[in-house]
Amino acid sequence: MPLIGKPFEAFGTRARFNVVTVPIDIKIPETSAIMPFDSIRSLVEAASYVAMADECVCRMAHGCKDYPISPGCVYLGEGARTIKYKCREASKEEALAWLEKSRSLGLVSNVIWSSVEFKFLGADAGRTIEICSCCPCCCLMFKTRNASKAYMDNILGFGTCRAVNVDDCARCTNCERACPFKAIHVDIHAGPVIDGSRCKGCGRCETVCRSKVLKVFPAEAGGDFSNACERSTPNAAEYMERFLAMVR
Questions:
Q1: 20, 78, 125, 166: which one has the fewest Cβ atoms less than 10 Å from its Cβ?
Q2: Residue 191 parent element (H or E)
Q3: Residues in a beta bridge with 32
Q4: pTM score, two decimals?
Q5: CA 194 to CA 132: how far, in whole Å?
């Protein structure tokens, strides 16, 4: 809100009023997280119950032409047993096969734990997580409002992309076009320049990189996320432990 933003910052900042946040009994904020496939695999393998939606609601609603409508999201945990809306029980092998295929197609594994959505579906939000295979043209375009930083900051990134062996970069700009978060710019001299505040480690750039100079690294065990989290927000390892506890 540009008209009132600067006056508010001038008179209402935390620094001005010396506000200190003391985290007590931290609750995981309801948001979503983009995770490396190894982490996704760990969640599926640890789940006591696995279900798959018959179709992707987002792609179906937007009439997606580039990616398959079926199957849809994968639900993990005992709380998913009560989901009745176009959902069925699935084996861990079936779920992993689809999630692996979806990533090869360029879809992004997005973990969601929304009490509002789960209540609508009839699931227990405290014992369920959802793994969406989001397409950049419908799902992520909707969730980020075409890579708006304000919306992107509500998505946690469990990894980050880095350029290795930059001299080998072909400057083809495949990565720049593939990034749904507009985190990469290819400079004719410097090669791929990555904006760490935007990169979520989704891996689309790594997949399309012609010269294989881009690589996604997982977040450090005690590191921060690529978003505007408060200091009281749990780190990657803490999030993973809580996710595992929710799905077991």
A1: 20
A2: strand 191-194
A3: 112, 155
A4: 0.78
A5: 25
